[in-house]
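Researcher: Sequence recovery benchmark, item below. Answer with residues only.
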């Protein structure tokens, strides 16, 4: 025996209709709350991944800078930037301005 069937048997028509409307409203609110919770969970995961990717790029950039600094001490006439460093900076800038959602 379902909840709505019990309502039909025991309540007057106007009370039953009001209760059914309230039940539908509460079910819709529950669905919205569940959807909001799912969206929040996905957003938090996305932000965490974005942070870790940015940290990884910044770590690699600093590492290459240190290597270049050591190279420039040994060979002062080389003034060019590493291609990887330029790529890393571009990726970092792209990650900050246009994050990859998927």
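Model:
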């Amino acid at each position: 025996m379902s909840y709505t069937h019990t309502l039909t048997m025991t309540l007057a028509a106007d009370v039953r209709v009001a209760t059914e409307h309230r039940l539908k409203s509460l079910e819709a609110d529950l669905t919205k709350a569940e959807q909001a919770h799912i969206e929040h969970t996905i957003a938090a995961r996305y932000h965490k991944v974005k942070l870790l990717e940015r940290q990884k790029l910044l770590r690699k950039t600093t590492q290459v800078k240190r290597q270049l600094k050591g190279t420039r001490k040994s060979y002062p006439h080389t003034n060019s930037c590493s291609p990887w460093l330029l790529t890393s900076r571009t990726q970092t800038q792209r990650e900050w301005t246009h994050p990859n959602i998927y």
